[in-house]
Task: inverse folding
């Protein structure tokens, strides 16, 4: 597990604090992602315990922030030591998604 205990990010004009405990509490309130019926526009997932969650939903639920971008969400979770990965296919594998990789 990461030695980092807190990650900070800014959404809009507000700075939010994210901890591993707030992420775990958020996961307990969210429904895990359903691999049988994935959302077509969400490709980044975080592993909390034994379940997968969309990274933006997880960070927004943990902090109360709105409109968190996917790069901020995935980097914040990774900084805290949560495994983060992307579901990719076709050109996403060969070219990446510019909104997620930049």
Result:
């Amino acid at each position: 597990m990461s030695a980092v205990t807190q990650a900070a990010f800014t959404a809009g004009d507000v700075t939010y604090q994210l901890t591993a405990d707030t992420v775990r509490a958020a996961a307990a309130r969210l429904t895990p992602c359903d691999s049988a019926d994935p959302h077509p526009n969400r490709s980044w997932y975080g592993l909390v315990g034994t379940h997968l969650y969309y990274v933006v939903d997880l960070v927004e639920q943990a902090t109360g922030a709105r409109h968190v971008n996917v790069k901020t969400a995935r980097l914040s979770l990774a900084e805290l030591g949560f495994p983060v990965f992307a579901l990719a296919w076709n050109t996403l594998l060969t070219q990446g998604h510019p909104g997620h990789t930049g």
